[in-house]
Amino acid sequence: TWETRYVLLLWLSVTCLIPFDFSRLDGNLHNQPGQERVSTMDRILQVAESYLVVSDKAQDAAAVLVSKFVTRPDVKQKKMASFLDWSLCTLASSSFQTIEGVIAMDGMLQALVNTVPVVRGGQ
66: domain range? Predict the structure, then answer.
């Protein structure tokens, strides 16, 4: 249900407040040959991006998650530019003529509005 997705995304945004680098959670990421594992940063960003384009309240929680996640010092260095590129490309390719386009634009704009004040205040 949307309630479950909403609460889990908000919970994930709270976990983004941990005071240590996310790379610490990926201790065995490089030690397993033959297995391709995705880093914690990439997984969180994939989840957030997938919910920014849905048409329920989970989109709002995903925007909160993005604002807390991409403004972390460790994530800002590695993922902020790619997230901004992705969101601007999604905005550019979306159309006001379709409901899917409007929903995608809404999610991108919510994420950007929540992220930009945090970035500007933290400079």
Answer: 2-121
